[in-house]
Design goal:
Oligomer: single chain
Order of helices and strands: H
Keywords: Membrane, Transmembrane, Transmembrane helix
Protein name: DUF2746 domain-containing protein
Strand content: under 5%
Shape: rod-shaped
Organism: Microbacterium algeriense
Length: about 110
């Protein structure tokens, strides 16, 4: 163990081992980083597609609701118009009935014969 060649071989072997470990760890880290980057890219792409699908789905649901509400609004508007027409007709009949009852009352009690 006192020979210089032995110590030189030990140093060369240690340097080679240290270099190999450094190279392997660097390659391992690069491989892991590339794997993480590819997974990150896939997740982003997938989340973007899911986000786009949700937006499209919500847009179609929103459109359907708008159409349904417009339909309900139109139907209720026409129903209210029909009810309004019927109430006007009843009101006109009541007005005529009031006029007719007043005429009968005046006729019976002789108010209009003055």
């Amino acid at each position: 163990m006192t020979e210089p060649q032995v110590w030189t071989l030990i140093g060369v072997f240690a340097a080679a081992m240290f270099g190999t470990m450094t190279l392997m760890s660097t390659m391992f880290l690069r491989t892991m980083q590339n794997g993480f980057d590819s997974v990150r890219t896939e997740f982003r792409t997938e989340f973007d597609s899911v986000r786009t699908e949700f937006r499209n789905e919500f847009a179609s649901v929103r459109t359907e609701f708008r159409n349904e509400f417009a339909s309900v609004r139109a139907e209720s508007g026409s129903e209210f118009a029909n009810v309004r027409t019927e109430i006007r007709a009843i009101h006109d009949r009541i007005d005529h009935l009031d006029r007719d009852v007043s005429a009968i009352y005046r006729h019976i009690f002789g108010i209009d014969r003055g």
